[in-house]
Write a structure and sequence with these properties.
Blueprint (H helix, E strand, L loop, with lengths): L3 H8 L5 E3 L4 E3 L2 E3 L2 E4 L2 E3 L2 E3 L6 E4 L4 E2 L3 E2 L2 E4 L2 E3 L2 E9 L4 E3 L2 E8 L4 E2 L3 E3 L3 H11 L18
Parallel strand pairs: 1-4, 2-5, 3-6, 4-7, 5-8, 6-9, 7-10, 8-11, 9-12, 10-12, 11-13, 12-14, 13-15, 14-16
Length: 151
């Protein structure tokens, strides 16, 4: 209840790529599926558009660049902005030096953000809100209001 299915889903996602401890990547990493980093990436980390990708960064991992992934689990250091279009979990040893843009966020005691936390609403909620803000249409659009001007 209360989001347990979603939580279980993010933690049980399948990791298809691992960047191990002691490995350094110089350049951008673009992936789909699951990516786990124990090493260092000096470049941006980005999931393919339209995928339900997940990225996890261990306490040993370092990213020097931006991260653009729907679902993110952090416990290491990111020096750059982070964009989680779905959900981000920040564990106790996570440290972001940059802005964090998210839809859902979970932060453990000890997690650190040196930047802004920017909440993004769900697009379905935005559509409902936008429709409710629109002016109401008149019952008979052919009828025009007339005004009399006195001189």
């Amino acid at each position: 209840m209360f989001g347990r299915k979603k939580e279980a889903k993010i933690r049980s996602a399948r990791v298809s790529t691992v960047i191990g401890q002691g490995t350094q990547i110089n350049g951008d990493v673009i992936f789909s599926g699951g990516l786990h980093v124990d090493g260092t990436v000096k470049g941006n980390v980005r999931a393919d558009d339209g995928t339900d990708a997940i990225f996890s960064l261990s306490e040993l991992g370092i990213i020097e660049g931006e991260v653009h992934v729907p679902r993110i689990i952090l416990n290491g250091a990111v020096q750059g902005d982070v964009f989680a279009s779905d959900q981000i979990e920040m564990a106790a040893k996570s440290k972001v030096t940059g802005d964090v843009t998210y839809r859902l966020i979970e932060m453990a005691v000890g997690a650190e953000v040196n930047g802004r936390l920017i909440h993004q609403e769900d697009t379905a909620n935005k559509l409902v809100a936008a429709e409710s803000d629109m002016p109401k249409k008149r019952a008979n659009p052919k009828v025009k209001e007339s005004f009399a001007v006195e001189s």
